[in-house]
Amino acid sequence: PAPAPAPGVLRNAPPPRPSSVSHPAATGTFRQPTSVRPLPAHSIRIGRAPDNDVVVPDLVVSRRHAELRAHPDGTYWIHDLGSHNGTYLNGAPVVDARVTPDDIVGIGHCAFCLIGGQLVEFTDTGEVSLDVQSLAVTVDHGRKTLLDEVSFPVGQKCLLGVVGPSGAGKSTLLGALTGQRPADRGTVLYDGRDLYRDYAELRQRIGLVPQDDILHLQLSVRRALGYAAELRFPEDTEPAERRARVDEVIQELGLGERAQQPIHSLSGGQRKRVSVALELLTKPSLLFLDEPTSGLDPGMDRSVMHMLRGLADDGRTVVVVTHSVLSLDVCDRLLVLAPGGRVAYYGPPSESLEFFGFDQWPEAFEAFENDRDRDWAGLYRSSRFHRRYVADATARPNVPVPGAAAEEREPAPPPKAQSWGSQLRTLVRRYTAALSADRTFLAIMIALPFVMGAMARALSEGGFNQESTLNVLLILCVGGVLTGAANAVRELVKERTIYRRERAVGLSRSAYLASKIVVLGTITVVQAVVLTLVALIGVPLNVPGGKGVLMPPLVEITLAVALLSFTAMMLGLLVSALVRKEEVTMPLLVLLAIVQVVFCGALLTVRGTPVLEQLAWLVPSRWAFAAMGATVDIGTVSPSDKTADPLMDHTAAAWLFDMGMMVVLCLVIGLLVARLLRRHEPVVMRR
C-alpha cells in the first residue's frame, strides 16, 4: 500500500492517464501516487533533507536536489540545485528545463508529474515489470546473430531463470537487458518506460552482479561495503547515513556474523552474498546476476538461489543467468535460449522438460547441440505456452514510445555521485587499505629494494672506478625497473571486473587511474630511495670535482632512480591494461626487465645504430642510465665507446634533458593506459 499523504496534501489523486512514456496497464510507476500537492505559486524545493518542501528519503538523492519554479507566464520549470545524481526530464538529465503536463521529472526513485494543476509524486517501490520486445543483436556486419527476436514479460516480484547451452546468447541478453550493451533492434520496457531512451535515469535502479567478485577480497565485508557506499552515494551523505545503509544490507543478507571477516576468508556462497549486498546499497528495483552459483557445491547452489527467491519476495524483480539446473524450481519463470539466441521456452520451470519431451536437462542440452537445424523457436511460438505466457501477457494498446529506434538512442554517461577529488580520495584510501591487508605484497615490497640495494653495494664497496661504475649503475637501473614494474603489472587486470562494474555506475576513469598512480607511485618512489641509499650511502662516488651537475651526486642519482622506478611503474600499468589474464603478467615482467637491461647503454652501444637507437628512446632505463652517467661524469671515470655519448655529458643541459625524457614517457604512457582502460568498459561508457 502507498504511504499516507503528508498533512495538507490532497488525498484524492487523479486517475492515471495515458502518457507518451508510460503504459498504464503495465506500469507500476503510475498505479498509485505517493502524494498529491497543489502546484506552487512560487517554488517547491525537493531533496533528502527534512527542511525541503518535498522530502525524498532516498540516499541517492542530494540533500537539496532540485526546485520546481513557477514563472510569471504560468509555465513551470525544474531547476537542478547541483545534485550529484542528476535531475531528469523524460529520462534525460537536465539543469533547467520547462515541465509540461506530458512530462515526467525523475529524482532518485521518484517521478513527478503535473496533472490537473497538481504535483503528483510516484515512488518506485521495487515492484516493477520488465517487458522485452523483439530484441536482436548481430555482429560481423549482420552475418552472425547473437539474439534473434527475443520477447518475454517479467512480472513484479518475479525470479526469472535464464538457461541455455554455451553460445546461446545468455551474456548478450544480460547486456541488452541491463542497458550496458543495448540491442541493435527491439525495446526493453521498464514499467512501461523505454529503458534505452531513459537509461540515464533508470540505470540507478538496476543492479548487476557479475560472475566474478566485484569487491576487494583483502578487505572486511563492512569495510568493503563502506567504501562502495562512499562512491555510490552523494557527497553530502552523512557518514552515519552510509553506515546505517551498510548495516541494513548486511543484516538483510544474513552477513551480520561475518561483517568483520576479510572477504577472501568467506565461503563461495557468502562471497556471492557480499557481491549482492554491494548492489543492494542503492535499493535497485531490477537485480541481474550472471552465473551466481558457478563453482559452488549443490548445497551452496541451492542456498544462493533461495536467497534470490527471498530478494524477489521482498519486492524486487530478479533475473539470474545460470548454467546450473539444480534449483530452477525456486524460479517463477524460466527462459530457455537455443543456439542462435532464440527463445526455445518461456514459462513455469515445472513444465519446461515436459515441453521439450525429456526427463533430464542434460538430454535437452544435448538435443540443442545435436539438432541445430530444428526450429526450436518456431515450435515454441506455436505452443500453448507462448500464447499463455508471452502473447497474452504482453498484449497492450500500441502506445508510441519516443526514441525507440536503435539509431536514435544515445544514452548519456551516468552522473558522478561524488566530485572527482572526492572519488580520488575514497579510491586512494580503499586501495591503500587493500594493499596494506595483502601481506605477500607487503613482504615483497619491503624486501625487494633492500635486496637489490645490497647487490649494488657489493659491487661499489671500493667506490666508483673504471671497473665498477658501469656495473653499479646497471644494477641500480635493473633494481629501479623491477621495483616499479613489479608493483603495478597486476594491479589493473586483477581489478578489471571491479572497475567495469564501478565505471557503469559513475566511477571516473581518470580518478581511478590517478588513485593507482598516487598510491603505487608513492610506494615506488620510497622503494627507489631506499634502494639507492642502501647501495650508495657512505660509498665514495669519486666524481671529478666532487660535485654533481646541479646538486650533490647522491641526490641526483637518487632522483634518477626514483624517476626511473616511477616510469617503470607506469609501464607496468600499461602492461596490466593490455593483457586479458593476470597469469601472463609475470612473463611480460621478465621480458620488460630484459629489454631495459639491453637498451640502457651499459652492455652495448646503441648510439649510431639504426633502429636500435630509435627503439632505445622508448626505454626509460636508457635515459636514467644517461642521467646517472652525466652526474658521475662517466666519460671521465670510465671512458669507453659506451660512455662517449652526448647524453652522458657532465652538463646541466644533458642531465635535465635525460630527466625530462622520462617525464615525457610517463605522460605518454599515462594517456595510453587511460585509452586502454576504455576498452574494458561497458559500451555506453566508451566516450
Topology of this protein?
Layout: E1 35-38, E2 43-47, E3 54-55, E4 66-70, E5 76-80, E6 87-89, E7 92-94, E8 96-99, E9 105-107, E10 110-115, E11 118-123, E12 130-139, E13 144-154, E14 159-163, H1 170-178, E15 185-190, E16 193-194, H2 199-202, E17 206-209, H3 221-232, H4 239-252, H5 268-280, E18 286-290, H6 298-313, E19 317-321, E20 333-338, E21 342-347, H7 352-356, H8 361-370, H9 376-381, H10 384-391, H11 420-436, H12 439-459, H13 469-488, H14 496-504, H15 509-536, H16 553-578, H17 585-599, H18 612-616, H19 620-632, H20 634-637, H21 652-679
Helix pairs in contact: 3-4, 3-11, 4-5, 5-6, 11-15, 12-13, 12-15, 13-15, 13-16, 13-17, 13-19, 15-16, 16-19, 16-21, 19-21
